[in-house]
Amino acid sequence: MAFYLKNSRNIINNLKSKVGLSSLMKQHSCSCLNHNNYCRFPASTATSPFAPQLNNLDLNSHKRGCLFMSQRFESTIAEKQFASVQNGEDNQALDFPGGKIIFSPDMRFLSESPSAHTYCFRVLDDNGQLIKQSNYIQVSEEIAVKMYSDMVTLQTMDTIFYEAQRQGRISFYVTTIGEEAINIASAAALTSDDFVFPQYREPGVLIWRGFTLQEFANQCFGNRADYGKGRQMPIHYGSNKHKYFTVSSTIATQIPHAVGAAYSLKMDKKDACVVTYFGDGGTSEGDFHAALNFAAVTEAPVIFICRNNGWAISTPTSDQFRSDGIAVRGQAYGVQSIRVDGNDALAMYSAVHTARKMAVNEHRPILIEAVTYRVGHHSTSDDSTKYRPAEEIEWWRMARDPVTRFRKWVESNGWWSSEAETQLRSSIRNQLLHAIQMAEKVEKPPVEELFTDVYDDLPSNLREQEKLLRETISRHPQDFPADVPH
Amino acid sequence: MLGIVRQKVLGQSLQKVRPGVSLLRSYSSAAKQMTVREALNSALDEEMSADPKVFLMGEEVGEYQGAYKISKGLLEKYGPERVLDTPITEAGFTGIGVGAAYYGLKPVVEFMTFNFSMQAIDHIINSAAKSNYMSAGQISVPIVFRGPNGAAAGVGAQHSQCYAAWYASCPGLKVLTPYNSEDARGLLKAAIRDPDPVIFLENELLYGESFPVSDEVLDSSFCLPIGKAKIEREGKDVTISAFSKMVGHALKAAEILEKDGIDAEVINLRSIRPLDRSTINTSVRKTNRLITVEEGFPQHGVGAEICASVVEESFGYLDAPVERVAGADVPMPYAANLERMAVPQVEDIVRAAKRACYRSVPLAAAA
Ligand SMILES: Cc1ncc(C[n+]2csc(CCOP(=O)(O)OP(=O)(O)O)c2C)c(N)n1
Ligand SMILES: [Mg+2]
Predict the structure, then answer these.
(1) Residue ranges covered by each domain of chain B
(2) Residue A76 has pLDDT above 80, yes or no
(3) CA A299, CA A336: separation in Å to the nearest integer?
(4) What pLDDT is stored for residue A114 in this prediction?
(5) Contact state of B340 with A480 under an 8 Å Cβ cutoff
(6) Residue A116 has what pLDDT?
(7) Could you tell me what percent of chain B has a pLDDT over 70?
(8) Name one GO cellular component term (chain A) (predicted).
(9) Binning pLDDT at 50, 70 and 90, where does residue A90 land?
(10) So what's the architecture of B2-26+228-359 in CATH?
């Protein structure tokens, strides 16, 4: 393999032709602005108290918001290359397979973290007011009201199902409290042609797509009407009709699956993309890394949405990784990435909407890091006050509640009233209580469902097993549960 | 031809058959009670205190004290250097554990459940199990992989699989399956002290169960031999082999059978690899009947291996077909009614034993 050296002047020409000088200039001016506009992100330093930092951050939010906008959604790759070219003015370059490498006499190690934390895109301030000059995607009244209603539905469903678990009516539950905006706003920004590969804290996507409260209840109760035929734990929803793949318990496995599906969409020339969700914890699995790399190399139309909610059961992000959150990793894999305030529904909507366009039109993966907080316990098997301060939870539940924040914005547009609020909440509550009662009444899955679907066709050995089981049940009915429909 | 092979094998193994050593060791007479969780915790604690090379690693083992509180108090006692909370990367901490073992440490790696060890199985099979052999004995791998295995209650297919047969099919590994507190203490200590990689399969539903333990079991020097089964209950009419939670089921079945005049012998396998073939065959030669019980899938299961061993070594002693009681040949369903039918119940064992003893009409005839 022959490496040869060239004068770096060629590089500038090279870059000019590749990127376009005007774009280089624009990127350059953006990066200047960014330097004045440093901001820190709370969830990446879980060991320090969250609240004070965020308060600081909020003081500057107007200024930061508008300055940040000028660079929104644009790749920073050109900017970095331009900087290297300048530094390497009098040095030589190595024409290396995959790109030129510029030599430098400076022995400088790349820092373990960028000098400033990655910016966080936000449109609404903590009071639900639009930050001046925000560059966001406008949402119609109809969409905004549906978004808000669905966020309330999700919140109410969590409260009531959680209670049902505490009463012993279902065996397990996981809430999405605090992450309603990520759930609903991202779903709203997609089209019904897009495929979803969820982790488990994204039932809001299904709500948005029209999965009914009765359908949720049927799954949690594992009854005969459950589309999963009672085969999976509560909250492992799935619906082909809604292009929502059945939740898998094994962390992060959905991420490479999403890339594979996106690759198929691309092969089929479909005008659609795949969206996959995962937590901060999930990014530690090898599957995350393989998925990002493959998505970049195969140019698959996939949107990776990481819900960086600060915790993976009891593990804070500081024990999970030492990178500046998740967005920076996208860059390392050659994937355009953005960090978004996950508690700002409008920012989430805008980022996903834009990401979708880029993914579908340009055939490229996009990584979105939605910064948020897991307000509930990890699951009904967990008591999170054992490992994190109650005040921290309370602060996020109250002061940073994404539902209230979005409501304020919807209200300020004159699209919502307190009467509508009261009516919505009581109606959803009643629908949920009814759904639970109905789900409880529906009988459990029948014997045959123990054996179907292991394979597409029931093989003879399973047919024999079923026959044997039925015979045994009829001979020894007292040895078997009474609630087995035949 | 097959017959000749069988006789040859039989001839060889007859010399190997010794009375079960475990028969002579009966520690379960004293009145003190201990949960399996306490047994595991105390075994870890004592081995960590006895040997500074021993350390514990896994998701949530430190601050959270383990997903099932097995490592309670250990972080406080031994500090974060020896009780390591890891990121969610099973392939990562398993590989890192294996590397630490190469270097001479004695890692105890906890999987939240053995289902998640599937993320890391390459390091277990291709690295841990084979390195001593491939390096011609230069690199030993004294590591323990432990955590709950098999069916818990209401957690579905991806949290409810038994991996005993999987790991037991791999040379280089030792596979232990404790049932009660005595087993948990004695076998975990043996696993940690052992120079080879050991797969230690616990059961979530047993963690909270209390069992009587003698003073000897509580002594910090207590240790059980790897590769020895234990006769939990002596009997003369039918042998029931079981491991982990199924030992409890087999003992309950034996009580029920006793009322019908059937005297069942229950073998607690304790070790799946090495498998204590001599204890099993000695028992079958006495009772002439065998029922194997396991929660895992029937095909290529532990029962299949035991059955093959008995056919090879004690065929002439069998008075009835061997029956395997195993999990249904399907992934575990969640719905409680289906789940119950997918895992072996005490009644299944009772019925199988009665069939073996010709006390009930065979199933096919009754249909
Ligand atoms: C492969 C695998 N390892 C471990 C687990 C156990 N587990 C379930 S959820 C979880 C934490 C996930 O945290 P994160 O990805 O941040 O999602 P969050 O719960 O915060 O939404 C862990 C470790 C699992 N389900 N699968
Ligand atoms: Mg998380």
Answers:
(1) 2-26+228-359, 32-218
(2) no
(3) 11
(4) 77
(5) yes
(6) 84
(7) 90
(8) branched-chain alpha-ketoacid dehydrogenase complex
(9) low
(10) 3-Layer(aba) Sandwich (3.40)
Q: Give dist(CA A249, CA B50) in Å, integer.
A: 38
Q: Quick one: tokens of A147?
A: 């978004």
- Interface contact A471-B363, CB threshold 8 A: yes
Q: Which residue has the tokens 């960090």?
A: A339
Q: Is A378 considered catalytic here? A: yes
| pLDDT tens-digit series, residues A468-479 | 999 999 999 988
Q: Residues A29, A89, A104, A163: which is the catalytic one?
A: A163
Q: Cβ contacts of residue A304 below 8 Å, gap of 6+? A: A255, A258, A276, A278, A291, A292, A295, A330, A335, A365, A366, A367, A368
For ligand 1, the distance from its centroid to the CA atom of residue A281, given in whole angstroms, is 6
Chain A residues in contact with B159 (beta carbon < 8 A): 233, 249
**DSSP track, A396-433:** HHHTT-HHHHHHHHHHHTT---HHHHHHHHHHHHHHHH
Per CATH, domain B32-218 is 3.40.50.970: yes
Report the residue count for chain A.
486
Model pLDDT for residues A332-354, shown as the tens digit of each residue: 999 999 999 999 999 999 999 99
Report helix angle B36-50 to B181-193, nearest 10: 30
Output the six-digit token pair for B52.
Answer: 């500074």
> In chain A, helix, strand, coil percent, each to 5?
50, 10, 40
User: Could you write out the DSSP letters of every residue in B98-141?
Assistant: HHHHHHT-EEEEEPSSGGGGGGGHHIIIIIITTHHHHTTTSS--
The Cα A315–Cα B315 span in angstroms is 55
Residues in A closer than 8 angstroms to B85, CB to CB, are 315, 319
Q: Hey, which residues 411-440 in chain A have their CB within 8 Å of chain B?
A: none
Interface membership of A319 toward B (CB under 8 Å)? yes
Q: Is the N-terminal amide bond of A49 cis, ω within 30° of 0?
A: no
Of the pLDDT bands very low, low, confident and very high (cuts 50, 70, 90), residue A89 is low
| B323 φ, ψ (degrees, to nearest 5) | -115, 135
Indicate whether residue A251 lines ligand 1 (CB < 6 A): yes
Residue A364 confidence (pLDDT) above 90: yes
How many other CB atoms are found less than 10 A from the CB of residue A342?
33
To the nearest 10°, report the CA torsion of A296, A300, A305, A308. Answer: -20
% of chain A exceeding 70 in pLDDT: 81
Structural domains in chain A plus CATH codes: 2-102 (no CATH), 120-440 (3.40.50.970)
The set of long-range contacts for A160-166, using a CB threshold of 8 Å and a minimum separation of 24, is A160/A429, A160/A432, A160/A433, A160/A436, A161/A216, A161/A217, A161/A220, A161/A234, A161/A432, A161/A436, A162/A376, A162/A380, A164/A220, A164/A436, A165/A234, A165/A380, A166/A380
- Tell me what pLDDT residue B261 has: 96
| Weakest mean pLDDT among B14-28, B205-219, B259-273, B353-367 | B14-28
Check CB contact under 8 Å for B335 and A479.
Answer: no
Residue B199: per-residue pLDDT: 98
Could you tell me how many residues make up chain B? 367
| B163 min Cα distance to partner chain A (Å) | 16
Closest CA relative to residue A190, chosen from A206, A211, A214? A206
CB A352 within 8 A of CB A189: yes
Question: What's the A311 CA to ligand 2 centre distance in angstroms?
Answer: 4
| pLDDT score, position B362 | 54
Please, which pLDDT band fits residue A483 given cuts at 50, 70 and 90? confident
Mean pLDDT value of segment B355-365: 71
